[in-house]
């Protein structure tokens, strides 16, 4: 039992590390910042229409605790992003694999993905695995932001702490024995040539 639990942890950790933020894909194609005008004009606090208030509060709190540690403005919950994240999480959970939605489908938002064995991971730990990447973070301009030499080793973390990101919406879906977390961020982070904060 201990060996299988350890293997599950290693597989989940590897999957979380392998899926770089979708905003990084967008950033690598352009050295210009992403326009933030008009995409998601309405802002919501956690719980104002959120499908799962506890999930929203936990996810938002975990993000904002790290942002407060760095004296960054806290994120606000956006139910539109939550709904989009839920739709994509359902697709990925049925597939049983992780893949970023294309940039057009995401309306230019950033995206973090996570997958693990269903029912074994509290959402704070799911988001915590994004934040754990800070051990490799190097404060420099994107993409030269990782001590390992690969920005994808810290891409989840930098999206969480990206200064210009103001809103987040996340959802968890379960199928095929896995929980899938999708978080969408507006405006997207990981912009070529810029620092996270």
TrEMBL record:
Stored InterPro entries: Allrgn_V5/Tpx1_CS, CAP_dom, CAP_sf, CRISP-related, V5_allergen-like
- Highest taxon in the source lineage: Bacteria
Key words of the record: Signal
Q: Which residues form the SCP domain?
A: 54-193
Span of the signal peptide: 1-26
Q: Which PANTHER family match?
A: CYSTEINE-RICH SECRETORY PROTEIN-RELATED
Protein name stated in the entry: SCP-like extracellular
Specify the species: Qipengyuania qiaonensis
């Amino acid at each position: 039992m201990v060996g299988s639990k350890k293997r599950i942890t290693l597989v989940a950790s590897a999957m979380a590390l392998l899926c770089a933020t979708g905003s990084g894909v967008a950033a690598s194609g352009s050295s210009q910042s992403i326009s933030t005008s008009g995409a998601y004009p309405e802002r919501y606090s956690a719980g104002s229409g959120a499908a799962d208030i506890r999930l929203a509060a936990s996810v938002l709190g975990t993000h904002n605790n790290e942002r407060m540690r760095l004296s960054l403005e806290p994120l606000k919950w956006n139910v539109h992003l939550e709904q989009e994240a839920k739709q994509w999480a359902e697709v990925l959970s049925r597939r049983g694999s992780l893949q970023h939605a294309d940039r057009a489908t995401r309306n230019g938002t950033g995206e973090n993905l996570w997958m693990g064995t269903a029912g074994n991971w509290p959402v704070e730990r799911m988001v915590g695995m994004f934040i754990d990447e800070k051990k490799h973070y190097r404060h420099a301009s994107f993409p030269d932001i990782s001590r390992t030499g690969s920005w994808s080793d810290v891409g989840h973390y930098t999206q969480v702490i990206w200064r210009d990101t103001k809103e987040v919406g996340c959802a968890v879906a379960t199928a095929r024995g896995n929980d899938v977390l999708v978080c969408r961020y507006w405006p997207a982070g990981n912009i070529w040539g810029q620092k996270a904060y």
